[in-house]
Every structure is written in structure tokens, then in C-alpha cells.
Design goal:
mainly alpha; 2 domains
Amino acid sequence: MSEAHDHGRVMAARHAVTPLELFFDLVFVFALTQVTTLMADDLAWLGLLRGFAVLAAIWWAWAGYAWLTNTVNIDDDLLSRLVMMVAMAAMLVVGLAAPAAFGDYSILFGVAYLVVRLLHVTLYAVVSRHDADVLGAVRRLATGIVIAPLLILGAGFLPAGPARGVLWALALLVDFGSPLVAGTTGWKVDAGHFTERHGLVIIIALGESVVAVGVTAAGEPLTAGVVAAATLSVAIVASMWWLYFDVVALAAERKLHSLTGRDLAAMARDSYSYLHLFMVWGIVLVALGLKESLSDLTEPLSAVPAVALLGGLAVYLLAHVAFRLRNMRTLNRQRLVAAVVLVLLIPVAVRVESLATIGIATAVMVVLVVYEVIRFREGRHYLRHHSAGETH
């Protein structure tokens, strides 16, 4: 194992998430709220698609920095620390421009996003120069890292219309496809740090949902209905938290600890860089659905917010199903069933009051949590009370 001498720690050695990483993630919180704003301002199917595209681009930039800080310690290096802060400033501009990334601020978004990505790949190459394996892996990805943001920037120079969407789609295809083409040779992963960092992002996204509920509720008279809806919304978000952190996060971390080399890197890439995007996307959709529901609790939701709320919960659960399939090679049937039930309830949501829809969503999520706690209590107890070195 090579050492990054000028950064004071062995590659992939166990380390906790640093204050610099958490500081960097604060900007990501803002970008998440802006994606919700984008979709709320364009409450149509195309708006949801644009929201996903912007979220995917921002997520992939964040994921790149997560791999960087997982592999090498940059917190103690003055120049690296300054580069990270410049990247934070550029990411803030990305967030500011995100609601109009397909409109008036498409070029500004593209320029700022390009800066974020170029700083990432340059810093990664510099700090990994003493480890030939990691440096080689970075070089194999560099072409995709540069081409994708250039395509997004290029889309900003085109007239508003389908052509912009085509370039965005191509950019995301290049970004998300490059790691599959480049392979996992050379990457080194600190399993504990990697799972902790992504767990914190799930908390950040869930927190964004609570903020969306709070801000919306604060703008309404605090009637019994609003208080009930806000309380039920917290129950939904708490259920989402429970379903991830009670068992899933622990089991996934232990599985990751049991792997080495390319298998470890491949699972980190698939389970976290790819599948966690859809968990976050589900959370953002739920935030949008709750925000729209609270705006008028006595009226039924229109189709798009109904799909956002119930479909967002379904996406979140389906991402968990895929996560378990990738990690454990087993099917989480109860979460799959719950996701199907939520989708089937969408036609109901467009006919009943919004408050009733929030109540229905809460009931499905709470029943799922209670079922898993009771049905798998022995396995849950074993997992939570035995050492991390024991893997199943």
C-alpha cells in the first residue's frame, strides 16, 4: 500500500469524516433545496425530468469529492484546503443557478459546474501522485470528468428546446458510464469512512425535507390541519430515516468491510455512488410533494405533486431494494410490496384531500417500519449488538 507522504496518511487507512468534508457538504444542502425550488416553479412532468437531471449532475460532482476525500487526506494540507473552499464557492454558484439551469442561467450554471469538476480532477491527480494505482484510476476517468461538464456548458449556448435536453442526457450518460468503462482497478476505499459519508448525505437530504415542510407550514395559519399535516410529515421523514439507519446502513457497512480490492471498489461505486442517487432523488421528490400538499390541505393534489409524494416514497424504497440486491443478493419483499402499494395509491391521491394523502403515506411507511421491527427482531438485535467484524 502506497503512502501519500505529503498528506500524512496511508491511502485508504481508516479515518473519520473530517470537519472540512462536513463544511463542504453544507453547500450540497443548499443545492438540494434549489432542486426542489426548480421543480416547484415548473410543476410539470418536464420540470420533474429537469429536476432529476440537475440533481444527478450535482450528485455526481459531490460523489467525486467523496471519493477524493475517502482516498487521500487533504484536510491537513493548506493548498488542498484552499482548493476545496474555492470549489465550495463554485458549487454555491451552481446551486444559485440551478432553478434556471435550463433557462436564463444555463451558461452560468455550466461555467460554475465546469469549475467544480475541473478543480476536483486536478486536485485528485495532484494529491494521489505518490500512489501509481490511484493516479492511474484517476487518469482513466479524467476524460469523462472533463467532457460531461463541457457538454452541459455547451447546452447553455443552444436555444431553449430539445437540443439542450439532448446534450444534458449525453453529459449524464458520459459521467455515469465512465466508471463502468474505466473499471475499478486502482481505487482504494476506506469502507467505514465511505459509508459514514453517504449516511450523512442521507441525513442532509432528509433534513432538507423537514426544512421544506417547516418553511411551507410557517407561511400558513397554524390551524389544526396544518399542525396535523406537519406532524405526519415528520413521521414520514422519520420512517425514511429509520428504514435506512436502523439496519440497512449497518449491514451495508459490514458487507463493505468484508471485501477488498476491485470487489470493494465496485460495490462502493454501485451501492453508493449510483444507488444512493435514487435514494436522494426519492427524498427530494417527497419534499416537493409535502411542500405542495401543505399549500392547500383541503384540496386534492394534482397529478405531478401526487406522483412526487407517493412516487418519491416508492423510488426511495425501490432504491433500498436494489441496494440490498447488490449488497446481499437477496430481495427485500416487504419494501417492494410497500413501493407497489404507494404507486397504486396515486389515483386515490388526486381525488382526496391533501391531508388525507399525507395520512395515507404516513400509514404505509409506519406499518412497514413496525412490520420489519417485529418480523426481523432477532436478526436486527444480532446485527446491532455484535461487533462490526462479524459479517453475514
